[in-house]
Design goal:
By secondary structure, the protein is an alpha/beta fold. 33% of the residues lie in helices and 18% in strands. Strands 1, 2, 3, 4, 5, 6, 7, 8 and 9 form a nine-stranded mixed sheet that branches.
Length: 288
Amino acid sequence: MVVLKLFNRRWWWTTLLVIAGVAVLIRLGFWQLDRLEQRRAFNAMVAERWKQEPYDLAHNPLPADLQELEYRRVEVEGEFDYERQLVLVSQTRSDGAPGVILVTPLVFEDGRAVLVARGWIPSDLAAPENWPQFQEPPGQPVIGLIQESQMLPNGEAPPIPDSPQTEWFRINIDAIQPQMPYQLLPVFILQLPEEGRPYDALPYREEPLRLDEGSHLSYAIQWFTFAAILAFGYLQFIQHQERREQMLQAQAVAAEEATAVEGEAPSGTLPSGVDTQAGGLPRREGHA
């Protein structure tokens, strides 16, 4: 049987390597299935928080643990201070178009304020003289997602500039606070598109999350398929090699037998010079 031949002296080491490879591929498949379950649990959590009523940030304090508001919409009302508006430079839209993001303080009735990232505008409209055309209708509540103050890639806070700046690379509340006359909340808001807002309206806003299951299931099927191909292919390889070896052995035996037959004299013949007459004794020729 082929299974028994897998562990003979010739193939046992290769078989162990193939078994290890199949095990790794199967493990990768189950790992992708585990990632799929994690993704589904994450999507369920986000969907549940998204369905909750927006948290009124203007009249309720920030929770001690900001993760309580993660993926939950917040709502604020106030008056935008366009005189102290700034932009995040070197920003690209989802389609790769270059531009900036408008960031505007929203001042509450109690005098506090929160920075609102209102959306993206193209680079050719990034000059301050173009900003007034993007002002929001007065009295309209802002709904968005809480975002933490942004740090440098190494985790450190960016330096505080000596003078007010309108162009920034990140929204760091501590760095921006000195140029504001009011107390900023230690977070900022990523404004979401309002219901019925045209897709191409400026400032451009988009949903920050798309809840899907990703490619984990297809990857799992791929790894399981690779494992099956390796296992089945190895069995076919062993069968082919064993059949080839048997064929070669049969050919070698046939060749040896043919050589042996050719080396034997035909039966019923005698060497030349032997006369079968006179009792079969050799006849000697000579002079009388």
